[in-house]
Amino acid sequence: MNNPILLIIQREFLSRVRKRTFLLVTILGPLVFAALLIVPGILASMPEEDKNVIVLDEAALIVPEKGKNEYQLEYLDPRENDLGSAKKFLVESSYDALLYIPTGENWDPDFIKNNILLFGKEDPSINMVQFLDGVVEDRLNKEKLLRNGVDPEVVAQSTTQVSIRSYTIGKDDEEDQQSATGLKMGLGYLAGVLIYFFIFLYAVMVMRGVIEEKSNRIVEVIISSVRPFQLMMGKILGIGAVGVAQFIIWVVLSGGVYFVVTNFLFPEMIATQAAAGPEGSGLNPVTGFEIYDQLRAINFPLILSGFVFYFFGGYFLYSAMFAALGSAIDQEADSQQFMMPVTVPMIIALVTAANVIQDPNGDLAFWMSMIPFTSPISMMIRLPFGIPIWEVILSGAILIVTFFAMVALASKIYRVGILMYGKKVTWKELYKWLKH
After folding, report:
1. With contact defined as beta carbons under 8 Å apart, do 413 and 433 qualify?
2. CA-to-CA distance for 154 and 180, rounded, in angstroms?
3. E strand or H helix at 46, and its extent?
């Protein structure tokens, strides 16, 4: 192995994978990702603690109902109690909240809906407020219908919920595929966020490595044996290899942890989420065949290969810029003035992610996926939606060309700045180095 770049790649790779921090982060990473997937479902399936609510209904709007529900309602007689005495009773009792419904002249519904009050010993939870809103709204609507001579049961029977199934027309002799818009949106957004996370993490690692070698004067010894360009490329490729190794380990371990937890520790959670109906999430139940059809509609090989390509492309592009910035400064604290302008394109890609998801074939999504500084994130958001392959090829070609151009520019800054000490560098100074 006489190639200097290969020697530097080996040095950068081994020096990082042998660190305890690498092993610690590699092990904790899958646990964190699995927790992000599992914990919300576990928390959502946990029953909320029963709350007792006093109801002072001067408008006689809510009919007292027997039996226990999520929130136990205790009704006070409005003929014997007013708001003041009800609040005093709440303070002295073990109840949690007081719902006050006033009455207006001639039972004015607008007055009632604008003057309903809820008092609690502590801040009422959002679930409690939403539950009571639903109860009052339902009763108020029914009472308004009755006062206008309309039977609420007839209105309820005439209400129809519609669930449209969307399909993508198959090309030539291919079968029409059921659309999986929700799954594609979640998958695209997750892929975009992961791309941003990995690119920023490992590109900053390149910059810190350059600053560390420069501040310790180790780079002076290294430069005596290799050219600055070889040192920069070896460092970029070596840390990139660390990122790939760590990502593969994370994927395998995360999948293993998720499989064990969902199939052995909390198997009922998956069944509950898959069978969630209109009362649960507002969606119709999803059958196993529908889930299979939705998964078939996603080109996973394209997404996985695209993720690897755009990770490498985005990482190489940004790591070249970060390596150049690291060579121009002596301390990491001085890097803040240069990092923000460099990372702004990635931040813009994240900010516009919602617009790209809403219209993955629109003009904004197209141009965001063509601009090389935003394409790694924006294109990964679009890939699950099955965009034309020529757009993927064009975006990838622009990214590759831009990377080589950026390496050429970054190497000019790197070879000058790597041996410069004790001087505060400005953007104007960097521009002079580029012209040198």
Report:
1. yes
2. 35
3. none
CB 328 within 8 A of CB 432: no
Q: What SS3 state is found at 251?
A: helix
- The CA distance from 120 to 90, in Å, is 8
Longest CA–CA span in the chain (Å) reads 96
The pLDDT of residue 367: 92
Cα dist from 103 to 110, 119, 242, 407, whole Å: 10, 18, 69, 74
- Segment 6-15 shows an average pLDDT of 82
How far is CA 106 from its chain centroid? 51
CATH domain 51-157 topology: D-Maltodextrin-Binding Protein; domain 2 (3.40.190)
Kindly provide the b/e burial profile for residues 317-342, where b requires at least 16 CB atoms within 10 angstroms of the residue's own CB: bbbbbbbbbbbbbbeeeebeebbeeb
At what angle are helices 389-417 and 363-370 packed, to 10 degrees?
Answer: 40
Domain residue spans of the chain: 4-38+179-435, 51-157
Q: Compute the distance between CA of residue 100 and CA of residue 103 in angstroms, rounded to an integer.
A: 10
> What pLDDT, in 10s, does the model give residues 259-302?
776 666 555 544 444 444 444 444 444 444 455 555 566 677 78
CA pair distance 383, 230, nearest whole angstrom:
34
d(CA 246, CA 21): 12
Asked if 70 and 28 count as a contact pair (C-beta separation under 8 A), the reply is no
The CA angle 303-308-311, to the nearest 5 degrees, is 115
| Residue 328 pLDDT | 76
DSSP H/E element including 70 = none
Q: Does residue 68 have a pLDDT over 70? A: no
Stated pTM of the model: 0.64
Whether the pLDDT of residue 213 is over 50: the answer is: yes
Give the confidence band of 370 by pLDDT, cuts at 50, 70, 90: very high
pLDDT computed for residue 399 by the predictor:
92
Q: pLDDT grade, residue 323 (50/70/90)?
A: confident
